[in-house]
Amino acid sequence: MNEIKIGSFIEYLSYVEKNYNRDFIFRGLNNLDYSLVPKIGREAYVAKCNPDFVVDELQDLEEQIMHDFIKMSIPHMDLRNISAWDQWTIGQHHGLPTRFLDWTENPLIAAYFATENYNNNDVAIYVVNKTQFNSNTDEDLDVFSLSDKDEVVLYSPSYIHPRIIAQKGVFTVHKNPTIPLDQTKINGVLCVVDKLIIPHTVVTDFVNDLDWFGINRSFIYPGLDGLAYHLDNKAKGGI
């Protein structure tokens, strides 16, 4: 993994402009120790599995969770007659543990997620070239039935949720969700990942500049909850 330290918001914008283009996607994390692993592949879920059958048991757990989500969400949103990929997309955006890993096509949004709720520590923005992956264009293909040659595919969801639109969201979908993306081979070669490190000393400036550009919680989380949180935080002296 290539690590690059970024000293300011302007330096971040400049680095992104010089080194990346629209083929790249971004993921912000507010802790340098977090891995590029989908939620279902993290320790809380893996620990429940038999070590010899981790991937199979995680799939069983994931499918059961989605079955319950579809059944119990009907009073709020009826998911029964939409595609499986749309069901997984909505579940992912509402926090279900899945083999989907969130990315954004917008580097400013990734910077927001990197600096959101940080705890006086350095944060990171990960960058990958999406052309490394095959894309899922077949809505009839089961989420768990990736081609044998595809350890990871790129999925660009339909605009079925306001958050997807606001966050310019895309997903990588992982056959084995326990393996970090930077340790996964794509077509026989380790996935190329850049890690842009933002020191904790400049995070506050990042947050202020992002707000100036209109990237704040009310934008990231459309709706009254996001707006109310943003205004409440400003009233307390935050951004």
Q: Shape, please?
A: globular
Report the sheet with the most strands, covering strand number, pairing sense and barrel closure: 4 strands, mixed
The helical percent reads 25-40%
For this structure, the quaternary state is single chain
In what range is the share of β-strand residues? 15-25%
- Counting helices, strands and paired strands, the structural category is alpha+beta
Mean pLDDT: 88
Topology order in helix (H) and strand (E) letters: EHEHHHEHEEEHEEEEHHH
The figure for the number of domains is 1
Poorly predicted ranges (pLDDT <50, ≥5 residues)?
Answer: none
Order of strands across the main sheet: 1-10-4-2
Number of strands: 10
Number of helices: 9
How far is the first residue's CA from the last residue's CA? 32 Å
Radius of gyration using CA atoms only: 18 Å
Furnish the topology, listing elements before pairings.
Blueprint: E1 2-5, H1 9-19, E2 24-29, H2 43-46, H3 54-72, H4 84-93, E3 100-104, H5 107-115, E4 123-129, E5 134-135, E6 152-155, H6 162-167, E7 169-174, E8 185-186, E9 189-190, E10 194-198, H7 203-212, H8 217-220, H9 224-235
Parallel strand pairs: 1-10, 5-6
Antiparallel strand pairs: 2-4, 3-7, 4-10, 6-7, 8-9
Helix pairs in contact: 5-7
